Structure formats: C-alpha cells, structure tokens
Amino acid sequence: MTSVPGAPVTMKCHESMLYVATGSSVVAIDLRTMQKVIIPAVNRQKLYSFKIMPSKSLICTGGNGSAMLWDIRRNQETLKSEPIAELDGHTGPVMFLHMDQYKIVTGGPKDSYVNVWEADNGKRTNSLICCSPQEASTSSGCAGLAVNGYQIVTASCGEEYGLLRLRDFTNATDPVVKSEDEHASKF
Prior knowledge:
InterPro entries: WD40/YVTN_repeat-like_dom_sf, WD40_repeat_CS, WD40_repeat_dom_sf, WD40_rpt. By secondary structure, this protein is mainly beta. It is 4% helix and 51% strand. The longest helix has 7 residues, at 72-78.
C-alpha cells in the first residue's frame, strides 16, 4: 500500500507505473514496489481532470480557468515542475480533457466553448461552441466531450433539452492558419 496527498481525481496505468492526479499534483507510483517515483506535475491550483500520453511523455491537467501541459522527462531531469504550456482561456474548472498524439481538447461545465490545442506545444488551434448560438447565454456550458480521431462531439444542457453537436474534421480542407509562418492545423 501507499498513500497520496488528498483524494484522487483520476488514475492511469501505463506499464509498471501508476499516475494519480490528486489535490494539486500528479504522482507517479511504481506498481512493483508501490513507492512514489516522481511527482511529474504540480499545479498552482486544484486539479479537476487529468490525461497522460506516455508515448510522448506528456501529461495534461485541468485546473480552474486553464489546463497545463507537462513533459515528464523535463520535470525528472530538472527536479522542477514547470509546464510546457498553459492552455488558458476557459471559464470555470476544466473538467473535460481529451489527449491524443495530435491534439488536446479541453472544456468545462461553466464554459460554452471547448478549445482544441496542439499536443506538442499547447498552441490553440480552434474554439468550438457547445450550445446553439441562441442558448449561449442560458446554457450551462459543456456537459460532456467525446473525441474519436477527427470527430469531436460536445454536449450541453439548455433549459429544456440537452444538445449533442458532432463536428467531423475528416475531410477538412481549409487549415486554420494565423499567419504564413505558423504551422497549419486541421482543427
């Protein structure tokens, strides 16, 4: 047995490691010895969500108003917990996270928008409304999020019904580009 500071928000196993998001940090525990190995991410605030992509050594944590992107290798080498990027621009807690090798999608129950970010550097590539434009002022925000490759489904709750919105970027032909020098994103 072992203990962690505070109640776990979520956990993820990868090979012999267990990553536990709890309180304001993510703790890595070696399942063979049940010993804490590293604390790869220490947030400045309470954690509401957590995802990890072990193949890229990346962790994403959702806090209040933003998410943080962390590189486990960098934090191990320097023994400092500094994020790669702050995924800023949300209202309220970021409770919904998706992370794959290309993108991170973030959202929360007090925010009518979900944001799409590049997984490698945390640059925002798009912002998608969850509710219908007529309900933007009365919607409770993002109530759920599901991602399958190039498809993003968002859920919101209005006063009378729930709205599911599917966006399929499979055949997207117009990349989002801010300037000629920046990398283009399909999202």
